[in-house]
Amino acid sequence: MDVTSFGIDHNILLRGIYVSRKDTVENGVLTTFDIRMKEPNREMVMDTAVMHTIEHLMATFFRSHSLWAEKTIYVGPMGCRTGMYAIFKGDLESKDVADIFKECYNYMSHFSDELPAAKAEMCGNYLDHNLEITKIECKKFADEVLACLKEENMVYPRQTK
Ligand SMILES: [Zn+2]
């Protein structure tokens, strides 16, 4: 198994949007992104309820987006609870998804409706959500990272072009 991000020194990673890997499949390329909301091993991670709520909101955002629904393969939480994975169709770079993630985090920061799919028949642990802390975490990432993305927030240290 080659998981590209395992080969990177997590002690020096920052927050940001990073290409984790690219896979060639029958009809083209799939790009996996690490949406890293916390500095690994140096910041408190998010709790499971927040990760779970972000998963529901981020999936809803992309699955219902007029342009991105068709390109979205998967979004889901990192087991280390420092961020999210997102897989899209296409050979993409971080700059190609910066705007859509700004839109996504803005959507999640201001979400005020009933949480999508948070019902027993639609979710494996429907009581384990925390929308209010999710909104705080999403606004923090949007303001502190997405609003001022630099090269070091979009390219992993050992990646060279
Ligand atoms: Zn769920």
From TrEMBL:
* Top-tier EC class: lyase
| Keywords linked to the UniProt accession | Autoinducer synthesis, Iron, Lyase, Metal-binding, Quorum sensing
**Protein's GO biological process:** quorum sensing
Which cofactor(s) does the record list? Fe cation
**Catalytic activity, per the record?**
S-(5-deoxy-D-ribos-5-yl)-L-homocysteine = (S)-4,5-dihydroxypentane-2,3-dione + L-homocysteine
* Claim: Disulfide bond is one of the keywords in the record: no
| A Pfam match | LuxS
Tell me its EC number(s), please: 4.4.1.21
Which top-rank group of organisms is this from? Bacteria
Q: Which GO terms describe its molecular function?
A: iron ion binding; S-ribosylhomocysteine lyase activity
Q: Please explain the role this protein plays, according to its UniProt record.
A: Involved in the synthesis of autoinducer 2 (AI-2) which is secreted by bacteria and is used to communicate both the cell density and the metabolic potential of the environment. The regulation of gene expression in response to changes in cell density is called quorum sensing. Catalyzes the transformation of S-ribosylhomocysteine (RHC) to homocysteine (HC) and 4,5-dihydroxy-2,3-pentadione (DPD).
Q: How does it assemble?
A: Homodimer.
Q: Belongs to which family?
A: Belongs to the LuxS family.
What's the name of the protein? S-ribosylhomocysteine lyase
